[in-house]
Write a structure and sequence with these properties.
With 118 residues, the chain is mainly α. The protein has 5 helices and no strands. The relative contact order is 0.10.
Length: 118
Amino acid sequence: MLFALRYSLRNIPANVLEAARLDGCGFWHICWHVLLPRALPALTIGAVLILIFAWDDIGPLLAEPTGLGAGLLAARLHPGILMAVSLLLVLPVATTLVFASRVLGRRDAPPPPRPTLG
């Protein structure tokens, strides 16, 4: 995540920052309105990965007989209960990925300059 964030911030042209300074923007205004929109996809990827790793730590609690999954074993692993638990495990990550795809799919950044021949 750190490399993606560094890469997204290093690719901001210096003339964009200079133009913002010439327009009278202060340090925090440049950070909020110039740097943050460019770094938002990298921050979104980091947030999604953190959520997935944290949510994966909860999964074994639902499946182990000593954790919250003790009720599943008492129900003799009824298929309906197993499907409900599977949905509970998948739903938060799936909805996060759907909302993250909106941020990752935006094309706010200008395309890179094309190489000239000659």
